[in-house]
Specification:
The structure is a single chain. The protein has 13 helices and 15 strands. By secondary structure, the chain is an alpha+beta fold. The strands form 5 sheets. Strands 1-5-7-6-4 form a 5-stranded antiparallel sheet, sandwiched between helices. A 3-stranded antiparallel sheet has the order 10-9-11. Strand 2 and strand 3 form a beta hairpin.
Length: 590
């Protein structure tokens, strides 16, 4: 049966550990430790099934050699309290073949670690089951030496990871950079050495300690020069811890631990599904899953063979308690199920339908808010552009009309000019002058159009036509958004009316009964989660908008439930009054 196990630990020099020794042990190899001068020889260790080092693209090829890689790590980590490496130990599904497990680990490592800049040293072990003396045994607990008689049910992978990223040149990055507290006027800011080189021309100065009387104060050299003060030392002012590498900060965070565990769960389940195995694993704790099962203590290969050890006995006690808990829980569940069964049939369908309607309303409100937000943004973008385009359109229309009239007049004048005139007539000159005047008017209007285009922010007439086409497209989009908004508003109204109608059919005591409330809340939560999952499949999911949609929906529907109860009360009062009046009439009749 596939189980979830993903243990994460850090190999620290302060604990007397060496990453070269750790790598040698896990890879069953012999490595020279240049930091300690020792030879770490674990070449006789058995049950190593697979070993591989996976590098990111920017890592030097020499790091494919295990001894070179981990000695480089030992060398770059100078401190006695340095973190040398991170180790992930994962249990491999026994239902998979070794080849399938190797592929599973490779995909997980590349996706979760190597893609983020880490170097991964993978070693897969599959030791046999052993007795208290450490001798492999068969299924009848008899010592055996033949591997085919042994029981192998603990395949697991050790993944050693580097804790420093590499830069683009394949060199180890610093974990922190020194930050200098600089000053410009009254403004103070922290810069690294590289940043300070770029900003010092902008007036930024480092601060140093200067003697002022019996005190030591932080000043820039220019400030100290004005007061003729003597500097205490050459060390500039800096932040206490420097600027930490953001990638390393994430690698060391709790969020990263959760992400690595979740990623292993997803890769295991994906592989099990791919090979057609129905079992699935879950990275959540018993508490997170709402179970009262007590977690067992992990027993290593030695503790699991010593049945007289405290850890082994404690584990047996935990197993016994868990078994008792399961038995008690089953009895309680059976009793509760018998009680609930009497009312479940009545409430289940109504509660589910109400939950489904609520989920539909939440989804519609979420999409409605997104559409309204897009519409408002589009309207803000459309309005100034529309004003400019309409202005230009009207100007062009006027100019075209005037140009058309000028061309018609010019054509008539040219026709008239083609006729015969007496030698002494001044009419030809007058006609020519009028033609030139009309042509000058056309040129003037062209220049005026160019000036107006520039005033409205258009480069030329082609730019105007492109933006006018863009405006038409945006107006079309705005119209489609309005149609969609109307559709969602109608959906919300329709679903709300159906919700109110369904509540109105229930008796008041049914609506407020604990059983019905429980089922209604369960279905509401289920369909709310379904709505959230459905929406999250789309890009740009906005959690705050979803929460607002939930809040607005619950407010509107709680009002509907109140009205349903109020309506039922008024109907019962009217029915009672009608019965009383009918009784009075019967008493008065002879």
């Amino acid at each position: 049966m596939a189980i979830f196990q993903c243990q994460i630990q850090v190999i620290k020099r302060s604990e007397g550990r060496s990453v070269v020794a750790a790598a040698a042990y896990r890879s069953a190899s012999k490595l020279q430790n240049r930091y300690t001068g020792n030879v770490e020889d674990y070449s006789k260790k058995k049950w190593l099934k697979y070993s591989e080092i996976i590098l990111p693209e920017n890592a030097p090829k020499k790091f494919q050699d295990r001894e070179t890689l981990w000695n480089s790590v030992e060398e770059v980590e100078k401190g006695s309290r340095a973190r040398l490496a991170r180790e992930i130990v994962v249990a491999l599904p026994g239902e998979l073949s070794m080849e399938e497990n190797i592929r599973l680990v490779q995909e997980y490592v590349r996706d979760a670690f190597v893609s983020d800049g880490m170097i991964a040293d993978i070693n897969i072990h599959n030791p046999p089951v052993k007795n208290e003396k450490g001798i492999p045994v068969d299924e009848h607990d008899r010592p055996v030496t033949d591997e085919k008689d042994m029981i192998f049910r603990n395949p697991h992978a050790h993944i050693l990871l580097t804790v420093r990223p590499l830069d683009k040149n394949g060199d180890w990055q610093a974990k922190t950079q020194k930050e200098y507290v600089c000053k410009r006027g009254e403004e103070m800011k922290a810069f690294t050495a590289e940043e300070f080189v770029q900003v010092k021309t902008e007036g930024w100065e480092k601060q140093y300690q200067y003697y002022k009387g019996h005190q030591k104060i932080w000043l820039t050299p220019s400030e100290a020069y004005m007061e003729n003060l003597v500097r205490v030392s050459k060390n500039p002012r800096s932040t206490p811890y420097g600027r930490r590498n953001e990638r390393i900060e994430f690698w060391n965070s709790k969020d990263a631990v959760f992400a690595y565990r979740k990623s292993w769960e997803e890769h295991v389940n994906k592989t099990l599904e791919r090979v057609g195995i129905p079992e699935r694993v879950d990275c959540r704790s018993y508490e997170e899953k709402g179970e009262d099962t007590i977690s067992e203590i992990h027993l290593g290969p030695h503790a699991s063979r010593r049945k007289d050890s405290d850890r082994y006995q404690m584990n047996e006690d935990i197993k016994s308690l868990n078994e008792t808990n399961r038995h008690i829980r089953k009895i309680l569940d059976d009793l509760e199920e018998q009680i609930r069964e009497k009312n479940r049939a009545v409430y289940e369908k109504v509660a589910e339908h109400l939950g489904k309607l609520r989920g539909e309303i939440i989804t519609a409100r979420y999409h409605l808010e997104n559409l309204e937000k897009r519409r408002d943004a589009l309207e803000k973008e459309i309005q100034p552009l529309k004003d400019s385009v309409v202005h230009i359109r009207n100007v062009r229309k006027t100019i075209r009309e005037k140009d058309r009239q000028a061309e018609q007049k010019t054509a008539r004048l040219r026709k008239e000019l083609g006729g015969e005139f007496p030698v002494w007539s001044s009419r030809p000159a007058e006609i020519q002058a009028e033609i030139e005047s009309e042509q000058e008017g056309i040129r003037f209007r062209e220049e005026r159009l160019v000036r107006i285009l520039a005033e409205e922010g258009f480069a030329d007439i082609r730019d105007y036509e492109q933006k006018a086409a863009s405006l038409a497209q945006m107006e079309k989009e705005a119209e489609m958004l309005e149609q969609k908004i109307s559709l969602y508003e109608k959906k919300i109204q329709d679903y709300t009316e159906r919700y109110e109608s369904l509540c109105g059919r229930l008796q008041e005591e049914d609506i407020h009964s604990s059983e019905f409330k429980e089922r209604r809340e369960w279905w509401s939560s289920a369909y709310e989660q379904k709505a959230s999952d459905s929406i999250q499949k789309h890009r740009h999911f906005r959690p705050e908008a979803f929460r607002r949609a939930v809040h607005k929906t619950d407010y509107a529907l709680s009002h509907a439930v109140y009205l349903a109860g109020r309506t039922e009360y008024l109907v019962s009062r009217m029915q009672k009054m009608a019965d009383e009046m009918s009784g009075d009439d019967r008493q008065r009749s002879p």
